[in-house]
Amino acid sequence: MAPFLPPLLRLPNEILEHIALELALIDPVGPPSDLIPFLLTCRQINHVLSCARNQHLYRRIFIGMFDITAAKRRFGPKVMQAPNLSAQLRIYCTALQHIRQGDIYSPTVFDDFWELLFLAFENDGKNNVQLEWAGLGAFIDRFVR
Fold first, then answer.
1. Rounded-to-integer distance, Cα 55 and Cα 59, Å
2. C-alpha gyration radius of the chain
3. If 0-12 CB within 10 Å is exposed, 13-18 middle and 19+ buried, where does residue 105 land?
4. pLDDT tens-digit readout, 105-122
5. What is the spatial distance between Cα 69 and Cα 74, in angstroms, rounded to a whole number?
6. Alpha-carbon distance 43 to 41, whole Å?
7. Best CA proximity match to 35, nearest among 63, 58, 7, 6
8. pLDDT, greater one: 2 or 73
9. Which of the ends of the chain has fewer CB neighbours closer than 10 A, N or C?
10. Contact criterion met (CB below 8 Å) for 24 and 64
11. For the purposes of burial, counting CB atoms within 10 Å of the CB of 6, is it exposed (0-12), middle (13-18) or buried (19 or more)?
12. How far apart are the C-alpha atoms of 14 and 43, rounded to whole Å?
């Protein structure tokens, strides 16, 4: 007798990936927090959709959240590879969360500023929305004062 498999786990991985992408981009401003409950549904979904196993998904999330045209123009097509954008998604989301938390004494504040500087330089519209969400203007004002 075959073990019972819930209907959600019978879906092809491509469908699970599409569901994850839609969840991640429900609100493309700020980290893709709507994706987290889906990843925590069960081990198999987490395994299939993990960043380590599915960099293509996180590349697509990055493209939905951040501007890529300036970086592509400056650095060439290599920047568009899934491992690069997947890693950059984590870096940018972490920096944005740190700034939003407002801790001007954080040990990562200078690294965060560096990443957010790239976001500002590569802005074609989406990046500015992310920086506003993080409250960068108010954070810089508090940091300087």
1. 6
2. 17
3. exposed
4. 999 999 999 999 999 999
5. 9
6. 7
7. 58
8. 73
9. N
10. yes
11. exposed
12. 17
What does the block give as tokens for 17? 């990936």
CA 80, CA 87: separation in Å to the nearest integer? 11
Identify whether the C-beta of residue 63 lies closer than 8 Å to the C-beta of residue 126.
no
Q: How distant is the alpha carbon of residue 88 from its chain centre?
A: 8
Q: How far is residue 143's CA from residue 130's CA, in Å, rounded to a whole number? A: 19
Helix axes 13-24, 55-65, angle to 10 degrees: 30
Confidence (pTM):
0.91
Instruction: Give the Cα separation of 77 and 84 in Å (integer).
Output: 11
pLDDT at 2: 54
- Give the residue among 39, 58, 55 at the shortest CA–CA distance from 47: 39
Q: How far is CA 22 from CA 4, 18, 106, 129, in A?
A: 27, 6, 33, 19
pLDDT at 44: 92
Rounded CA-CA distance 138/64 in Å is 26
Mean pLDDT of 134-143: 94
Q: Which helix (H) or strand (E) segment is 59 a member of? A: helix 55-65
